[in-house]
Amino acid sequence: MKKTATKAFTNLVSAILLLAFEIWAYIQTLGFKQPKSAKYVKPATFPQVMICGMAIFTVILLIQSILKVVRGMSKYDYDNAPAPSLNPVKNRGIAAALFVIVLCICYSFLFESLGYVLVSAIICAIIMVLIGKRDAKTVVLVSVLVPLVMWFIFYKFLKVNIPMGVLQPLRDLVDKF
Question: What are the extents of the domains in the chain?
């Protein structure tokens, strides 16, 4: 089998792309505004720590992949297997992942106009059906009650103002109590 068709080679390419993204993300954190009152922990501290942690594991993956591609692997090595196809027509998992990405983009566009509860309920129901939940009662109850309860907790207890969109009368009703 050609080395470029193995999982080890795809790991190598993925590690290079991920490392490039991590470098870009770290550079972006350098532009965060630094308040004068923050002496030790600044707004960029947590993202930089997370990026450095990811970069460590990415470098380990990169080194392992380079060694396996250059030195070769035994026929029983897991990374010597053929790389899976990323073609969404052949691989239903990839198609589902792309669909979820499109749903997340739609979520961000509809969030302000329709509101958190309604958009979250719709997206939750779609994803539950997508992953195989077919019991209508469960899908409806979970997709409606979870966003409602989360909104209530954030709005009433944590005092976070979340957009309600068309369900603004619900917020007005809760404010009366």
Answer: 3-80, 92-175
